[in-house]
Amino acid sequence: TKAMTKEVGRAPLLVATPHQSSTADSPTFQQTRPLLNTTMLATIGYGVASFVIAFVLAALLGSDGGALSKEFPWQFRLAAACRTPVLMLIVVPLSFIRGKYTLARRRLRRYLRGPGGKAAAIRHAAHVDSISEQLRAWDRGGRKRKLRTARSNWAAMSTKLGSNKEECNQIALGHMNEILDVDEDGLTLTCEPGVTMGELTDELLPLGLMLQSHIEMESITIGGLAMGFGIETNSHKVGLFQESVLEYEFVDSHGRRHSVTKDQPELFYALPWSYGTVGFLTSLKVKLLRTQPYVRVEYLPTSSAAELTSQLQRLAALGEGQAPDFLEATLYDRDNAVIQAGYFDARPSTAAPLNRINVWYKPFYYRHVETALRSGAFQESIPLQHFLHRFTRSIFWELEDMIPFSNHPLYRALWGWLGPPEVSLLKLAQGPVIRRASVYAHVVQESIMPLWRLPEGIAKFDDWFGAYPLLVFPVRIFDHSSETGGSSGLLTPRAAEIEQGEASGLWVDLGAYGVPRAVREGAVWDAKENIRAMEHWTREVGGWQALYTDIFCTPTELRQMFDFSLLDKARKRHDGVDAFPEVYDKVKSEAGISDLSAELAAERAAAKKGTAAGRRSQSAATSVKSPPRRRSRSRSPRPIRG
Questions:
Q1: What is the mean predicted confidence (pLDDT) over 573-589?
Q2: What does residue 95 show for φ and ψ, rounded to 5 degrees?
Q3: Residue 354 DSSP code
Q4: Rounded to an integer, what distance in angstroms lies between the CA atom of residue 432 and that of residue 438?
Q5: 63 three-state secondary structure
Q6: How close are the terminal C-alpha atoms of the chain, in Å?
Q7: CB 82, CB 60: distance < 8 Å
Q8: Residue 62 belongs to what H/E stretch?
Q9: DSSP β-ladder status, 245-251 and 280-290
Q10: pLDDT in tens, 185-220
Q11: In the beta sheet, which residues pair with residue 260?
Q12: Close Cβ partners of 600 (under 8 Å, ≥ 6 residues apart)
């Protein structure tokens, strides 16, 4: 039987043969089809109308594009006006879906792989071999272009959108994401560099363990912390993340595999903050700590920068068993701050009741901390997992700049369960114009300074940025120069800042994240002028800038801030000079963000006259007064100065 066609107007209609069943031709269906079409169109119409209404309401309630100076390009002002609804209705739901997918995938992957062991070691060897083969092929091809990872820069935890990788030979490392071994007795973890903090929380906390430096942002990778910058609220005791590393494994530009421990001190201390400029990190072994299920947190309000500094000095100087396990502060304006001193605890108590701070309907943690300024000191017990990731929901305090009503009870009740927008998706949504303008409308900067300099640093941050709250993390910087014969690596502390009888001194990381005061007031904020002023002051006082931020220094000025002596030796010894970019080239902002042509020309002119800018800056740095050598931690703290 053949199918026949009938003409309906100009369109052919396929008619079923007697042996075929056609629901579409049934009288009932023909009668209900218009109703179904009408219902479908009505549903779509209601959906679109609801979306438009929600978009407009969110834009009216949350956006501040009208407050921006007209100096900003119209594209940026339009993006600012639409930012809140776009985040609320598009980016947040996508982040929720992506987060659930990532969680399911990593748990399935962990289930299928099993808990380390021989099979993991075999897989790891195969992973390393694949990287070595890529490098050997590049080597055989004449080593024509610099080497970088193939990871997209939007996925990295930095402010940069562009990657400066376009002209480089990119090596695939995305498969390096396995936990290789957890030694519960020896308190060590061995894993590949792509493992995230969220994965390590899932793996270690059920065992009563955590990293010695367990960073709060869940999407940060352990490799990024090892080769870059990692700090936590127990850093006043254990130092930066690099102090927890026992062994690095990396592959050099020839595809050769190296295992590096403190038995090779010059290379071992050259690797932190090197940003992969010696080789590609393939695994690392780090220290673990035993934990308790809860952290008892004491909230201590202070009313001046001097009082804040004095209290931090006092708490950090307490002896073993008395000093807090975790120590930080949040500064809400130039004077008022709340210190958070945390102690491991087995269970909540009447004096320190339970507070699950990361439940989706709870106020943001930093807003909860702020209540101590009104109610006075108090304490509570927080589950360890909630404490370790206390800033995830609010992206520290950035989310309220993006969605101003995100801490409102109604938003938390209706939208809070979706979580925050993912940082990588926020970057992916930017274009070059918006990215350039955002640098001059938003600040993300950190300066690590000697702790006694904190009052001066707070005053200067207020002048440069005027963005609050400020993050305040005390950190112990260790001097390893005796092990290497002269340098501790890129972060080499000045001898005058080392405590007497100790091999370390106390610094503090002061971080500004948010919209500068000038921008909030509708004026223009000069990012280049203010950030360069911060960089210059940080160099003068013997501190360091966090390099995941947008930097405005020249290559010469970066070398005045950091000690490159060990890294330069390592790069030469392992043929990295022609293979990998300089640190500056890896951490600088993409083209068009800052114009340093005048500064570079001044440096060249000074060099021709025999008075290089680096020599002048070094002279200025050594002229800054430094305090006497610090007392031992077991003694009473020295009063703050200046």
A1: 93
A2: -65, -40
A3: B
A4: 10
A5: coil
A6: 100
A7: no
A8: helix 27-62
A9: antiparallel
A10: 999 999 999 999 989 999 999 999 999 999 888 889
A11: 248
A12: 554
